[in-house]
Structure formats: C-alpha cells, structure tokens
Amino acid sequence: MGRQVSGTRSSEVTVNAQQRLGALEQDPEVRVVVFNSAVPDFFLAHYDIAAAPSRSATSTAPTGLSAWLDVLARIAEGPFVSIAKIRGRARGAGSEFALACDMRFASREHAVLSQPEIGLGLVAGGAPTHRLPFLTGRGRALEIMLTGQDYDADLAERYGYVNRSVPDAALDGFVADMAVRIASFDKAALTEVKAFVGEVSLPAHDLQACTSRAFWASAARPAGSGSTPHRNRAWAGPATSRCTWGSTCPVSTTRPGRDGHRPPTTSTPRHRFHRTAAHQHPKELP
Amino acid sequence: MGRQVSGTRSSEVTVNAQQRLGALEQDPEVRVVVFNSAVPDFFLAHYDIAAAPSRSATSTAPTGLSAWLDVLARIAEGPFVSIAKIRGRARGAGSEFALACDMRFASREHAVLSQPEIGLGLVAGGAPTHRLPFLTGRGRALEIMLTGQDYDADLAERYGYVNRSVPDAALDGFVADMAVRIASFDKAALTEVKAFVGEVSLPAHDLQACTSRAFWASAARPAGSGSTPHRNRAWAGPATSRCTWGSTCPVSTTRPGRDGHRPPTTSTPRHRFHRTAAHQHPKELP
Amino acid sequence: MGRQVSGTRSSEVTVNAQQRLGALEQDPEVRVVVFNSAVPDFFLAHYDIAAAPSRSATSTAPTGLSAWLDVLARIAEGPFVSIAKIRGRARGAGSEFALACDMRFASREHAVLSQPEIGLGLVAGGAPTHRLPFLTGRGRALEIMLTGQDYDADLAERYGYVNRSVPDAALDGFVADMAVRIASFDKAALTEVKAFVGEVSLPAHDLQACTSRAFWASAARPAGSGSTPHRNRAWAGPATSRCTWGSTCPVSTTRPGRDGHRPPTTSTPRHRFHRTAAHQHPKELP
Q1: Residue that wins the pLDDT comparison between A52 and C245
Q2: Which residues of chain B make contact with A188, given a CB cutoff of 8 A?
Q3: According to DSSP H, which parts of B184-285 are helical?
Q4: Is B116 helix (H, G, I), strand (E, B) or coil?
Q5: How far is residue A209's CA from residue C96's CA, in Å, rounded to a whole number?
Q6: What confidence tier does B13 reach under pLDDT thresholds 50, 70, 90?
C-alpha cells in the first residue's frame, strides 16, 4: 500500500501533495503516513520559488492558507499520524516539511537539518519560526533560524529538532515498527489525541500566513547590505559546496556567478509519500 | 509529619486525595509534598473506571472539574510544591499524576513511564495531551501519546518527561535534600513563583475537561477496527506481561480471555502522600 | 566597534543600559550584540535594590515597563540579535539578563546559572518565571525557580537553560564565529525572524510587570517563617561562601551578621556591551 509522489519541481510536489492529502484525509483506513526521501542524499531539499503557485492560489486551499502552508497545516492537523524519516538533507522547505510532521526520526550518520533562508536574506515562509519553539524551546529556535547553520542528527536530538537520532542501519526498522504499532490502534482515538496535543502546540493559521507573506516580501527586496562568503556558506552548508536550490535559487537569479554557488549536479530530489494502514507493514519503494 | 493515604481501589484514592488535598491546601506549614509509591514496583498504576466517581460528581469539586481532573489540577496549582518520586511504573493515571506534579525525579534502574491508553482505543482522560507538550515539546509529546510505549528514566530525561533520572541508590537522598531545602523557604514566595510559572505553562481547565469527556466517550465505543497483539502489547508494556488495570481493565471486560492479558497477581498498588513542612526532614514510611 | 558599559552599582548599569539600548535600536548597522562579563568570575551578578530606580521611573521607559523589565524586554524584542556569553556566575539579575537574550552559550568549566531569590523569600522580579518555561519546559523551570540552586553549564544545557555548553577554551571563538556569521546577514530578515519566533515564545508585558510588583512586595515583607542555614546556602551557592549582592543584599540589611553571609571581597562586577556590525569581528575589550 505504499505510494509514491515525485516531482521534478517543487510546484508539482506541492500540487501532488495537496491532491494526495485530500485522498489521505478521506481514507478511513489510513492511520500513519511515513515521509522519507527517494534520493539517498536528500529528504526534501528546496521549495521552488519560480514555479510555486501564486499567492492567488490560496483561495482554493481547504485551510485558506497559501499552497505550501496548506500542505504543511494538513500534515500537522490531518486525521492520520505523520512521521518524517530523515536520512539525508532536510534544509529549507525540507525542514519545514519535517517540522509539520507529528514526529521526526533522523539517521545519525546521514541526516542534516537546517533553515538556511536567512543566509540569502530570506524569511522562511513555511512557519518554522512558529513551529520550532514548540520543539526546541525559544533559544534554540532562534539559533536555528538566525544562524541558518546545519544540524546533524545528534545535535538535532539534543535540541529537540528531531525526536531521536537513530543509527542509520536501525532507522528503517525503528520507524517501521513504530508505524505498524500505531497503525494497529483505533483511528478515532489517534485523531483525538493528535488534536488535543495540537490545542497547546500548534501555531495559529493567521500567524503562519504572515510568514508566507514575509517570505515573498523578502524575496522581492535586495538581499540586504552585507554580502560576504558567509552568506553562501550558510546556504550551501558545511556538508556540501553546492546550492541545493538549483535553477530556482534566488541567489543565482539576483547574483549570477557568485562564488561558491553552482547549480546542483545530482538529480533533483524527489519526495515519497508512504502510508501505513492497519495490519499493513510499510513497504520500502525502490 | 509524613502521612499516608492508601486505597485498594482508585475511587478511594481519588476521594481520599480530594479530602487530603483540602487539608494540605489549608495547612500554612505545608510547603512541599513528595508523592511516591508504597509498593516497590508501582508509582500509581491505574485509574479505576468501574469504581470511579460518576461524572455528576463534578459539581462538588472545588475546581469544577471532574474528580480525577480536580485532583490533578489541585496538585498542579495548589499552594505547596509537589514532587513525584518515581521508582516503579507510572503508567496511565500514574503518569498523569506525575505530570500534574511540579517536578518529577525517576529511578534510573526502575522507573517506567507511559500513557498506554491508546493501545486500548482510549483517549487519556487526565489531560496528559495538554501537559506533556509543556515538558517534552510537541513532537515527543505526540510520540508518547500516540505510541503508548514505555519510557525508561534515561529516555524520559532526554525527552523532558521527567526532570532528571537519578541512580536508584541516590534517589531518596536527592529528593529528600531538595524537599528539605525548599521547605526552608518562604511559603508566600514559593506559592507566587509557582503561580507565575503556571501562567505560561498550565493548560486551561476547559481544555482539560475535554480530555475527560473524550476518555468516557472512547471507553463507551467499540475499540476500533484493528485488533492485533500490538494493542495488548502496548498496554502491558515490555517490562511486564501483566495488565496493570486489574479487574476493572476495559480489555478484560470487553475481551475476556485475550492472550497476554491476565489480572495482576501482586497486591493492588497503593499511593502515598508525604508532606514536608519547614524544618522537617521527610520521613520514609514503612 | 566594541563598546563597554560598566557600572559599580546596578542602577548605573540599568540607566546606562537603557541609554545604550536606545542607540543600538536606532543604529542600522548593528545586527548582533554579544554580552559578556568584564570581571572573570561574574556574568552579571546582582540587581541593586537600594539604588534601583523607583517604580515611578516606569513612565519614561519606551515599553511602559519598569526600568529593569524595560531593559530585558528591549534585549528580547530589539532589532538586533542578542547573545549572552556566560563565563562566570549568572545568578539572579545576571540570569534574568541572560534569559532575555536571544541565545545563551556557557563555559563548560566556569559558568554557573541560578535564580537564588527564593532563598531570601523573594520573588524574582525580572520575569524568569515567565521566560524559563519557554526554554526548559515547565518542570525544570519550576525546579530552577523553587530550589534556587546552582546549575553548571552541562546541566544547564541538558535542561535548555542555555543553548549549549562549550569548553572554555573554545567559547570565545565559538561565539565570535556565530556573531560574525549572523552579522553578515540581512538586518531586515533577521529582525522579522526574531519577531516571528517571539510571537509564540515571549511572555506578555503585563505578565512580566506582575513579577516586578511581586518582587517589591516580597522585598518589603518579613522573609517568611522559616530561617535555616538553607536560606543562606541557597543564596551564596555551593561555589562560593560569599553573597554576591554586596552592600545592598537584603539579607545583610535585615539580618546583619548572619552566618555564612559576608560582603564580597572582590571588586563589583561590571557588565560589558559588545556589538557586532556587518563585516566586523567582535573585539574583546581588555
């Protein structure tokens, strides 16, 4: 029953995600959805500014939020348990997606999380500013958002950015066992428990909407007065010298040829939806 | 000045607790109350559904909440410092009780905490869904509530479920030193500090009341469509094959003879109230 | 561009801080301010009750809060990133100051944090009761506030009291690298991100104002019925037998000659403001 959604551009991921979420929300058998990455090195690496649905797309989203925030809110509030299995890089939108999930488990050896937008003069638009404090506390949320630096799995666990850092060899089994266990429970009870926890730990939609507006406003203005290698270093991160935004990276648009900024050479990351219903074992897709 | 409340059924514990709390609330000398367990293996293991006061009992509770939530709210908001010393199992209502205390210290070797209600298709009714996020953050609160699995003391500390995991041999001294220290301080200042912290970290009473209603509603409905060994495994937990709910366990009522579900063979857990006034050393009761 | 503010009495620190904050708030180049201590053993050790501006000084503060709360709120909400580098003792007002900063990094070997006010029957007046739960969670915030005990850097990190404990030899470089990195980013984006995080993690001003009123009320009343060595032990802390409040210590005023309570023999702690603008390396002042 595992299903896969992939897109070579984030707008496709967003649209596919919205369509897929509608199906997941209405399927009475779906109790758990595990999100992982089809490309080993990436969880979900970027949000495609150029191809993103315009802000007018907002009107059609069930939550009334813009397309990306709608996806995140429905992951966070939907009638199923959402688990992010993070094996590669979860930066920017990838981190935002993971933060919207109910739980996050990260490969000790391979996971990298960050919100690097600040390095480009951008305000992250998927409300990580409003989700991180409920996970890491205020001080560590500010550190993550204001430095834009990378966090490996062990530090992410110490900070509460992920639930737990798990040795890579054990990660699949760990998450599968948890998904199967949860999928054996009563869906009504799972949904009520999730809603109750959300009453004291989810940011209001109107606060989230502000982050999206701030993101577009920051993308439209010149990226600040400072321009140093740190800006790009923050973006590319210590684990790679490649920008993970590809052809849609705002830096490449506004500052072509800048040092340390090259389009990625690997294939575009794809994103996989993986649902677990009662009595089913999660299937790993090839 | 140590006093003991014990009951062979949870309804007695609840009624005794309500009576006892009235005395504690009005005693100008009581600064600290340490809660521990009289039976080595248990902190407080269960809430007695069959014998529990009916929902109509609500009207007489000072907080206006139902009996069990009234006990928990008065522990959390009362004019004394409440410390849970957790040496054995604190599952279900035992965990809820510990979560209502101001602080929690757990035996590294022997403590086990969990909210296993979800494994029976139940929604926990003592508002752990609303208390855990203020201790562990949203992601770990969801994990604890949605998996129903056991947490040992060290993992509970990493998650913030308890303040600290303490080696068993040092636990009594550690808690006693802290209780004596706090009991030497000014009661008015202690009460004001506790109230100030509560202003930003206690769930509203009306949110708590919803969890009690959801608990009774979930106990009344068939326990969901799925019925696998995981359901019982979640309940009994890895540390024991015995159900800790005894004769009032909803599983034994609705599914007699189910594998892995047997009534407990040890005596019913008892609960001990232990108060520490100024200048007094905590006394361990036999 | 490093600048220093020092005062031999806290009232001077407060007034200087308010003046300095006005300049920092209006300087379009200031992105990061690092606060550390000019005296090795202290971060900021005390608040000077005797010399403190009267409550009527409130009317002139931009936030409408009393002088000390005004300083703290402007650190927490100002258009610059504030980092506390904690190498020595940050007790009482020093801890309150650190808690108001966006991030806190502590010397593993030398940092000590605490809110020891409770040991004197005082309610801390700089709203640590309302800030700590957003960093450490409710249970650990209550422990810190109700025990008044000292926390070294490693335990402070485990509790979330500081972002991270850093080996002393690496602390200066760690904080400098972070400050330079952040200072290379766009100021508008930094400010918006800080504001967004604050929307879900800063206590309301009116709640903060209550703590100041409770502090003055607690300072005016007799310090409770209990009077034991623990009271002073809590204040002086395990790392020193000297009271860190000096001549203005309420204990020395109300209980002269009490055992274990002696005026400090070192010079009065001074406090240093250290700002980092874009492209500037933080300078360590002699």
Answers
A1: A52
A2: 121, 218, 221, 224
A3: 187-199, 205-220, 229-236, 250-254
A4: helix
A5: 32
A6: low
Contacts of B28 (CB under 8 A, 6+ apart): B187
In this complex, the residue of A81, A131, A192 whose CB is nearest that of residue B123 is A192
Contact: A124, C163; criterion CB under 8 Å = no
CA–CA distance, B213 with B124 (Å, rounded to integer)? 10
Query: Tokens 């949904």 label which residue?
Result: A191
Question: Would you call A118 and C160 a contact, using CB atoms and an 8 Å cutoff?
Answer: no
pLDDT surpasses 70 at B268? no
C156-160, C163-167, C242-246: least confident range: C242-246
The CATH class for the domain spanning C10-277 reads: alpha beta
Task: Tell me which chain A residues have a C-beta less than 8 angstroms from the C-beta of C200.
Answer: 130, 133-134, 203, 207
Per-residue pLDDT at A204: 95
Please list every residue in chain A whose beta carbon sits closer than 8 Å to the beta carbon of residue B158. Answer: 157
Compute the average pLDDT of residues B86-108: 95
Taking only Cα atoms into account, the Rg of chain A, rounded to an integer number of angstroms, comes to: 18
C209/C262 Cα distance (integer angstroms): 32
How would you label A222-247 residue by residue, b for 16+ Cβ within 10 Å and e otherwise?
ebbebbeebbbbbbbbeeeebbbbbe
Written as six digits, the tokens of C171 are: 């602390």
Q: In Å, how far is C209's CA from the nearest CA of chain B? A: 11
C196 pLDDT more than 50: yes
- Whole-model pTM? 0.78
pLDDT score of C269 more than 60: no
